[in-house]
Amino acid sequence: MRGVVTLAGDGSRMLPWTHGLRKEFLPLFDRAAVRGGPPVLKPVALLSVETLASAGIEDLTLVVRPEDLAFVRGYFRVDSALLRRHAHQPERLGETRRLYRTLERLTIRFAVQPHPRGFGDAVLCATRSVGDRPFVLHAGDAALLEPERGAVVRTMARLREREDLDAVLLVRRVADPRRYGVIEGSTSRPFAGVRRIDVRAMLEKPARPRSHWAATAVYAFGPAIWRVLRERARHRGSGELEVTDGIAALLVAGGRISALVLDPGMGLWKSVGSPEGYAAALQATRTRALHARPHS
Predict the structure, then answer these.
(1) What's the CA gap between 208 and 175, in Å, rounded?
(2) What is the pTM of this model?
(3) What would the mean pLDDT of 105-121 be, rounded to a whole number?
(4) What is the C-alpha separation between 211 and 182, in angstroms, rounded?
(5) Pick from 143, 151, 154: which is nearest to 31 by CA?
(6) Residue 1 has pLDDT above 90, yes or no
(7) pLDDT of res. 17
(8) What is the pLDDT of residues 158-202, one digit of tens each?
(9) pLDDT at position 253 over 70
(10) 152, 122, 142: which is closest to 56 by C-alpha?
(11) Peptide bond into 16 cis (omega under 30)
(12) What band does 296 get if pLDDT is binned at 50, 70 and 90?
């Protein structure tokens, strides 16, 4: 299974921070690898990458803007010179060494999105490196906070593969679904103990939502998504291409799509796409980092 993380968002709701800086590199707290160690700071992008790596993905494509390629490539590489430079302060290198162990397990590829033309367009930019294969998609401006990192994505990928589905979505119940991509569907038999919905329709930011089930930006896709996204891209005109456009097209064509429900006991989804969202994410991650058990 391959993975895609998108790091090319325009971030207009976060201006002026995002004037020349990426919201995907805003810092959030994480629990330390060492028991009793203080919380550490990591960019949201790294948390997304660690989630996919922990789910067992070994081949990862990062979608970036042209002006960010050198920086992102430099961040996601092993810097042996840094380790040598700080060898006299080994207590400060524990988390960096853990990061490097993760990077050494991954094949990391880079895809460039020349212009910010939507989430779906960013995914299409990864076509060459992913090919017509199944993959897991994770937006880089949000974090999936789980008791066991990677468990939810692993379950999504297993369901998609076992039943040969075109897509598996991760949804959560929200108070005001008008701000999200919203699904309609019927309750199905749970999978691996997780609530499941068989999806029959999906709308982006509907004025009159027919459910409270909002999609998070984590998906497990079969190869059919590539075809419908390419078709939608050819007919979009000057508008943005969204992932939800592709999902809606899959459903119209008779595609089989399910959603797993992210209950609070499984984890939380925290986006940094707005100042309020970032403040809530920072507080939530700090609380979890102070009280959760360390990573293995």
Answers:
(1) 13
(2) 0.93
(3) 94
(4) 7
(5) 143
(6) no
(7) 84
(8) 999 999 999 999 999 999 999 889 999 999 999 999 999 999 999
(9) yes
(10) 152
(11) yes
(12) very low
Residue 92, token pair as written in the block = 């400060």
Q: Mean pLDDT for the chain?
A: 92
CA distances from 244 to 112, 170, 197, 229, 232 (A): 21, 13, 17, 10, 11
- At position 229, the amino acid (one-letter code) is L
* Cα R_g (the chain), whole angstroms: 19
Could you state, in order of their start, the residue ranges of all structural domains in the chain? 2-291
Model pLDDT for residues 214-242, shown as the tens digit of each residue:
999 999 999 999 999 999 888 877 678 99
Q: Residue 21 carries which side chain, given as an amino acid letter?
A: L
CATH number of 2-291: 3.90.550.10
Q: Given this model, what pLDDT does residue 238 score? A: 66
Phi and psi angles of residue 89, each rounded to the nearest 5 degrees, phi first? -125, 60
Indicate the length of the chain as a whole number: 296
Q: Return d(Cα 74, Cα 67) in angstroms, integer.
A: 13
Q: How large is the average pLDDT for residues 143-149?
A: 95
Backbone angles phi, psi at 216, to 5 degrees: -85, 170
Whole-angstrom Cα distance, residue 117 to residue 146?
A: 31
What would the 3-class secondary structure string for the chain be?
CEEEEECCCCCHHHCCCCCCCCHHHCEEEECCCCCCCCCEEEEHHHHHHHHHHHCCCCEEEEEECHHHHHHHHHHCCCCHHHHHHCCCCHHHCHHHHHHHHHHHHCEEEEEECCCCCCHHHHHHCCHHHHCCCCEEEEECCEEEECCCCCHHHHHHHHHHHHHCCCEEEEEEECCCHHHCEEEEEEEEEEECCEEEEEEEEEEECCCCCCCCEEEEEEEEECCHHHHHHHHHHHCCCCCCCCHHHHHHHHHHCCCCEEEEECCCCCCEEEECCCHHHHHHHHHHHHHHHHHCCCCC
